[in-house]
Amino acid sequence: MSSKTKIVVLHMKEIVYTAIFAVLAIVLIILLIFMFRPKSQETNAEADKYVPGVYTSTVTLNNTALEVEVTVDESHINSIRFSNLDETVTTMYPLIQPTIEDIAEQVYEKQSLDNIEYSEEYPYTSQILTSAIDEALEKAITAE
Q1: Contact assessment for residue 112 and residue 95, using Cβ atoms and an 8 Å cutoff
Q2: In sequence order, what are the beta bridge partners of 68?
Q3: Residue 4 CA neighbour count, 13 Å, CB half
Q4: What whole-number distance in Å separates Cα of residue 9 and Cα of residue 67?
Q5: How many C-alpha atoms does 62 have within 13 Å on its Cβ side?
Q6: Inside any domain, residue 95
Q7: CA distance 17 to 79
Q8: In contact, 68 and 131? CB cutoff 8 Å
Q9: In a domain, 55, yes or no
Q10: Each residue of 3-33: pLDDT tens digit?
Q11: What is the pTM of this model?
Q12: Which domain holds residue 81?
């Protein structure tokens, strides 16, 4: 009876490397599955929430009508600006241009009017402009 005993020597370093590569392979496969899976129809419906175009609403300041112009595509707010701002209005209301720029920057980041932070320097001007932007966005949502 001769028994041939075989002894297998495994180095701990090889086992650790194999385990690390196996974990990385599993993480890579999971990442690829999440990246390339088809998106649901509900997500596309939420993304297409605006009718593309340019929408305006009017703000009246001391018998001067200013038009706030909001440009949107299917899912993004692309531009917010005054369409008829002249030198007289900017002289009479110097906070109007910095206010709309501040609000527009926040809207571009968030793509929404939710949780807009008003500046402590000009909160009332910010509220008036935010309501005008909201009115223009309502037109963009309901336009057919």
Answers
A1: no
A2: 57, 82
A3: 0
A4: 80
A5: 5
A6: yes
A7: 52
A8: no
A9: yes
A10: 788 887 778 888 899 999 999 999 999 999 9
A11: 0.64
A12: 47-142
With beta carbons less than 8 A apart as the criterion, state whether 69 and 83 touch: yes
In the prediction, which pLDDT does 31 show? 95
Give how many domains the chain has, as a whole number: 1
How confident is the model at residue 10, as a pLDDT? 74
Helix (H) or strand (E) holding 37: none
Angle ∠(88,90,96) on CA atoms, nearest 5:
145
Helices (H), 1-144: 12-36, 41-47, 87-92, 96-110, 123-142
Q: Report the distance separating Cα 104 and Cα 133, nearest Å.
A: 9
pLDDT of residue 76: 86
Any idea what the CATH number is for the domain that residue 93 is in? Answer: 3.90.1010.20
Residue 6 lies in a domain: no
Low-confidence ranges of the chain (pLDDT < 50): 44-45
